[in-house]
From TrEMBL:
Keywords for the protein's UniProt record, in alphabetical order: Membrane, Transmembrane, Transmembrane helix
Superkingdom of origin: Bacteria
Annotated transmembrane regions: 43-65, 71-90, 110-128, 143-166, 178-195
Keyword Transmembrane helix: yes
The name this protein goes by in its record: HupE / UreJ protein
InterPro entries linked to this entry: Put_HupE_UreJ
Amino acid sequence: MNDFLIYLRLGFDHITDPSGYDHILFVVALCTVYTLRQWRQVLILVTAFTVGHSITLALATLQLVRYDTAVIELLIPITILITAITNFFFKEQKSRSLSKPKPFNQAWRYGLALVFGLIHGLGFSNYLRSLLGREASILQPLLAFNIGLELGQLLIVGLVLGIAYVTIEVLRRSRLRWTLIVSGIVAGMALSLIINNELLN
């Protein structure tokens, strides 16, 4: 159980580590267009991302799939940029807090989260495999690491929705402005990661 907790903590620390902020940016981009009252939509969206990265995290860690690390490191900020850009086209209704996207748009976002989750899972696996070394059994560390990722991911989601609530409901700022500003910042940071990627230099 002690080893389980160690890998759980490593997973949590990995996704919440400010120095490796690419995964944080992606989660922020996913949640920016939602509010606390839309927690069900956010839960489904995060679940789609979780399913995606859990699949490739397991497959890559078990060495059932192989990939070029440099390519994945380029694709991750590209997923962030695309997600942030889609936020600019998000349609909000007249209500500040009860905006509900059309079902088609909602399903499209879920699919995007799932597909991009597959790419992020490969990024997670690269770090996990470096930690495992010569572990005899990797199934328990894999499970613990994945749970740690989810706990860290939920913390980020909670912070984003909490800040959005204060900004929109308490400070009475425009929800559209909130979405555009946060998405613009995320897009800019993602673009910087892409430009500085080793494959492009």
